[in-house]
Write a structure and sequence with these properties.
By secondary structure, this protein is mainly α. The protein has 10 helices and no strands. It has helices spanning 2-10, 13-31, 37-68, 90-140, 165-179, 187-208, 214-221, 231-261, 268-279, 288-292. Helix 4 (90-140) packs antiparallel against helix 5 (165-179) and helix 7 (214-221) packs antiparallel against helix 8 (231-261). The longest helix is centred in the middle third of the chain and has 51 residues, at 90-140. The radius of gyration is 29 Å and the shape is extended.
């Protein structure tokens, strides 16, 4: 009888709450232990990359697939291929085919949305883990660091980040995740890389006019002939003010020219969007597809 009471007490809601609290407290102690910080950072980086990729890609894929695509446009995997219809009487064969066509199209679209979301989340998570792992290795293996101090007679101290470690880590992660493999040039990867490239170009344009930049050094050399009236500073301000207008204007000039004469060179999603806006605007046969509908 006493053993039954002890067993019942062990499985009571109160004991379950205590055990749960002890487990949470132990987990909290582990994740707050500085000894495991670098290893747990890999887990957190993978989590953040996957969550961010899913949040960004899912609404984009949802809109692009349902607005600009229809019908069967890519082969499905075997698990999503339409089932082979069973033999049915002639009077019901047409009816069965009619009812299975539309759900298959919707199912295919959902499959594409989930596939794009999964790929975006997986790629960002994988890149984050590779990037953090490379930084971790470079900090603990200073002979591999690209820091100038690592190549000198005094090696880079352990746990100290070299100046170019992030460049090497990004290079390795970018090649492994976005530069090689069967799906390296998929539309999802191209969108991610082009997005990053555009931001890099903008950042380099801003850096170039700083005092240590290329244009900044050119302007600084001309300061020897400056009369002291702020000419060099005014030139730098002019470049900074006009950098974005020039970048935006040339970007749109090039994309419209390429879309007009070489549309097959553009990314399919961008090509579909531009066709919807600019090409379909030239075609209508009544009020219905002039204002209310596109086609």
């Amino acid at each position: 009888m006493d053993s039954l009471k002890v067993r019942h007490a062990q499985h009571s809601p109160a004991s379950f709450s205590v055990n749960k609290w002890i487990t949470q407290e132990s987990a909290t102690r582990i994740i707050l232990n500085p000894q495991y910080a670098e290893y747990l950072a890999l887990v957190k980086a993978a989590r953040n990359g996957a969550v961010y990729g899913a949040k960004v890609r899912f609404p984009h894929a949802l809109v692009m697939v349902f607005l600009f695509r229809s019908g069967t446009y890519v082969p499905l995997s075997p698990s999503l291929s339409p089932p082979v219809p069973r033999q049915s009487p002639p009077n019901t064969q047409k009816r069965t085919t009619h009812h299975s066509a539309r759900p298959h199209s919707l199912r295919e679209k959902l499959h594409l949305i989930i596939k794009a979301t999964r790929q975006h989340a997986r790629n960002l998570a994988t890149f984050a883990v590779l990037y953090k792992t490379t930084l971790f290795a470079l900090r603990h293996l200073p002979s591999l660091s690209l820091s100038p101090s690592a190549t000198s007679s005094t090696s880079n101290p352990p746990n100290k980040e070299g100046r170019y470690d992030t460049f090497l880590a990004g290079l390795l992660g970018g090649y492994a995740v976005f530069g090689r493999g069967r799906g390296a040039q998929s539309s999802v990867n191209q969108q991610i890389v082009i997005y990053v490239f555009a931001r890099v170009v903008l950042a380099l344009a801003k850096m170039s006019v700083q005092p240590g930049g290329v244009l900044g050094q050119t302007l600084a050399l001309s300061s020897t002939t400056d009369s002291g009236d702020g000419t060099v500073k005014a030139r730098r301000g002019t470049v900074e003010r006009n950098a974005w207008p020039v970048f935006a204007s040339l970007s749109w000039a090039f994309v419209m020219f390429i879309f007009r004469w070489y549309p097959e060179m553009l990314q399919p999603s961008l090509r579909s969007s531009m066709k919807y806006i600019y090409v379909n605007a030239d075609h209508w046969d009544g009020l219905r597809n002039f204002l209310w509908h596109n086609k």
